[in-house]
């Protein structure tokens, strides 16, 4: 297992494993979390070795090759189907294995590792994770083979972290390349944000101020000013991370006044673009995302997210690698493993929606994305810029910018799909999968600590001396009696003959529900009142009139 920062050279280990396999005429599988990374690694490996194939959800090239590059989901599917490839595999390389902590897709890695052929060997490539040894111990236990760890916190290109306050005109260095957090500089940045926030309240509470493009240059958006300043200071190429596909495209369109390429670069871009688009049908060439992209690309501006056509994403990746795209608006997936560093990385937001709520970026997410800044051997240092449009505590910023990487914790969960796949497979054994999962391994490891806590709590309980214990029992009995009587009164008050006169449209009603039972409706804890819109009388079996639907 190799655990290191971006650009630290983890791929060299994968290349060595592939070379060894091909030398011994063995088959090797390389898995990655996303199609874009699979495409890039396929191109990279194809230059080194000739016998390389690619299998993703979009394309299949040479599926019988000795070295197969594929997404982890494809590898799991092959395992469930009992593919012939399984019997021939000598090495399996899992790139970006820290993705195993992903809440939705992380379980795929656990299934793939547990079900991997017993005779195969493994290479795990990961970003820095504090509990790498725990993961290695799990692999050693499941596959009965040692798992060696190569771990380093060294970053080849040091980073400088700046804050750009919404409405401001300058950058504030908050973490220098030695890793020192400058709280005074951060406070100055927040102070510069105050007047901007006040004026922004008139524009949708400040949420859209930095994305608004006015007609005059004096009212340029923060994004436009930011990119303009980066180009003037020669901090390009720059990647601007946004957490919404729509926002990526919207921000790119705001760069209409900006032209970052020379005429010869524009000619090269047009040639590369149309040679790739020749693969599309005439109808597909007329799609808005195809026709709108070329004018942007010719100006040195690109967009990269999962909603684009695969061929379009591949062209943008190639153009960015060749230095023909100076400014790229991308979603978080661009930070996963792709070997496409830039000099500068900009975060257009400090919050992201995780499926349940908007929250601050975690330190692990920040480390992953900021790792794209700084090209090894080209830049002396990388530059990260955080665009802040709302107040945040220095402690929150410090945790985000200087916090440790997220631990690699299991996100294993049972699903109907998993159980059906296990039942369909000849060697399927759901119980074995559960027993050998990383989730179960971590749970077993936590048992001694939990048992220790139980003993401490029991000891604390036994050491308590309660005076007049009999009175305490009497008090508890009275509480139970009070609860029972309260329920009886409640039932009488809400009986149809008593409550019906009060059920008038427009009357306010206080909403209460028992905490012992889950409510069958969603209610904010601050909203405890409702209003009667209407009600109807329903005859019960005893012919009594009861109100309903109020």
From TrEMBL:
One of its GO terms (cellular component) is nucleus. It is found in: Nucleus. SMART domains: DEXDc, HELICc. SUPFAM superfamilies: P-loop containing nucleoside triphosphate hydrolases. PROSITE patterns: HELICASE_ATP_BIND_1, HELICASE_CTER. It comes from the Eukaryota. Pfam families: DEAD, Helicase_C, MTR4-like_stalk, MTR4_beta-barrel. GO terms for molecular function: ATP binding; helicase activity; hydrolase activity; nucleic acid binding. Transmembrane segments: none annotated. Keywords: ATP-binding, Helicase, Hydrolase, Nucleotide-binding, Nucleus. Belongs to the DExH box helicase family. SKI2 subfamily. PANTHER family: ATP-DEPENDENT RNA AND DNA HELICASE, DEXH-BOX ATP-DEPENDENT RNA HELICASE DEXH9. This is DExH-box ATP-dependent RNA helicase DExH9.
